[in-house]
Amino acid sequence: MKLEKNWFYSFCIALSIAGMAYILITGVSDVQGNQEYPYAMKGMLILFFFLTWAGVNFFALLSARIGITAKLRKYYKYFSGMEVVYVFLILILAFAARVFVIRELPMDLESDYKTYYEIAKMLKDGVLQEKGEGYCSYIGMFPHILGYSYILKIIFVVFGTSIWHGQAANVLFSVGTVFLIYRIARRLGGRMAGLTALTAAALWPSQILYINMLAAEYSFTFFFYLCVLLFLHLVMDYDGATKHGVRGVLLHILLGCMIAVTAAIRPMALILLIAVLLFLIPIKTRLPGIPINSISIWVRFLAKGWLRAALILAAYMTVSSIINTDIELTINQSIPSFSQSFGYNLLVGLNADSNGGWNEDDSRFLYENLERTGSPIQAQLACRNKAYQRLTADPGGVFNLVIKKYELLWGNDNYGADWNLAFLKEQNELTPNRAVFLNQMKSANQIAYLVAALFSFLTLIYLLQRSASALYVLVLVYLGTAAIHLMVESQNRYHFHVLPVFIIIASVGIKYIFENAVTFVKASDLERQQKENQQTREEAVLKQFEIEEHKAIEQRYKSMTNSFDMQSAIRNGNVTVTVSEGYMGPDMLKKDKSVVTAAETLPERNTASAADEIPIRESAEHNPAPKIFQEEKTKFDNTDLEELILELEEIAETGRVPHKNVEIQPAPESPQDETSLQEDKKVSELEEILDKIKKLEKNQNDLLEGYTKLKEELEQVKLDHTEAARNERGHTI
């Protein structure tokens, strides 16, 4: 069964956030400092809040960074055993602390506590109607008095009539409540939340100090949170896939009965009933994707939240009717219905002079009407009518009273120490050591209370951002308690049963902090990895850009120079030069011919055919003169010489060796004068070619200088590009 967020859910969470914020403001404002430094304590308290919050977050981040949770999972069984031992030790410590208070702070019975004891004693002896006529009238006006008195009566029957036995029973109820708080928090937030709630509830000062009072709060709180735990079990374990539909229906009936029994101890259990109904009515359970006839009718029944709510409500009303009938038989009087029973509490709650608390005037008015009419119902109705008059007479004053009552109810958690100080002083049992101890515990209790309120406030903020949580039912309990006490009688101790709500919500909030820390660390690691990958990609892109730009510059340079580097071509093997045999030695001079063959083999033309080779043959006749180069007489054909000159000019202009076959045949012998003219013409043409080559070399040097400047400019552009990319990443983050 999954709870979905809706507008009412968000409204309740937001309203609780406002309420918690007001508690924090009121709590800090009420802190008392000394006369010399009246505000120092408030500042220290706020600093303590900040350090506590920062410490929890730091520890959570540290735990997430070193992976404590993942490491502990390897020792799950070991830590499960350690958890059992820790829970057992904390429960023993809680028991010992409460027994210590009972022994060290002995308390005589006063006020309502004496009433409970006297009625329980009469119930045990069976003389309530004979000797307790006044108590019967009192029960008739406030039927819940009989609930706790009946529990004491059972204890007295089993163990004997004694104040100590009643206090010991409260110790057991209190320790049992501590265990229930642990189970609820663990169910909602896991092991960490459960152990945190267990420790806080076991050592909560006000709950320990109040234990020497024979009060109904301990038994009421135990049954209250037993109902909460059962409710969580039903909504979290009995969904559409359950195979125990009948058991689920029976447990819903049991929950309604238990809430009715709890309401017989204190009527505030009605708030839990309303919270459960509000939780269940809007939700539905998704059934398995199988034919509907294959699903048990009881499972289909539990799939509808409103049917669950109706079942719980029917069980509650049935058991409540039985309990009311039993009370009427016990006191032999009719008791008022729910709509009639809150008249006196409403009258007291709207009394501005007493700040909504008990006062003598309203109590006298109640008993006067009881004596006048002889009916508890009529007395309650008279109080209700007068309360309506107060409500309509001064609406502005009522609103002011409501805000003040909220501060009185939630502003502090000092009732444990205050009631001990008051009663011990009245009984002349307040020693200086006891006074110092109680005042110290009072200060510690206030700090613990405000810290719990702080983390509850933070948890509620988390709930607004996260998916719907079963904590919602506890939020409704807090809101219901706050709302009802704005109107009816209110005392500081009346928030006793809501303190576990604060503890559970705050403990689950600590679990949320650790979850957020893990998420933050993972996100940080992922972001860092993404940055590193992005930087690697950018560096690769920049490097590729450099390579491509360098290639582009080289190509641009080659295209601009239009020159052919013969020396590099020969060095790289692209051009092969062979020398005629006539230059190799004197023994070879007698040969008529020598062949010079040059071939250019470009890298991209490796697969060229043999026809692409350029053989160049040159033959000459040499005379055995001492200076071969001066006396050599070679005869060329005019046509071949012109082709050679044109080829050299093309090489100089384009920087490429033309792929064509050029063969220079030996020139025919001619007369001496014709040979001289041809040689002079060839020399002049070669000189012109050399002049062109020199000019091209000069142009090449100029282009080299331009290339160097261009390269420097490109380096600067690249640096600017890198800086711009970094700035862009910075703005994106």
Total helical elements:
28
Mean pLDDT over the residues: 82
Specify the biggest β-sheet.
Answer: 2 strands, antiparallel
Please provide the ordered H/E string of secondary-structure elements.
Answer: HHHHHHHHHHHHHHHHHHHHHHHHHEEHHH
Distance between the termini: 41 Å
Strand element count: 2
Helix content: over 70%
Radius of gyration, Cα only, in angstroms? 51 Å
Q: Could you give the order of strands across the largest sheet?
A: 1-2
* Structural class assignment: mainly alpha
What percent of residues are in strands? under 5%
Q: Which stretches are low in confidence, meaning pLDDT under 50 for 5 or more residues running?
A: 588-637, 660-667
Keywords: Cell membrane, Glycosyltransferase, Membrane, Transferase, Transmembrane, Transmembrane helix
Organism: Lacrimispora amygdalina
Region (Disordered): 657-682
InterPro entries: LipidA_mod_glycosyltrf_83, RgtA/B/C-like
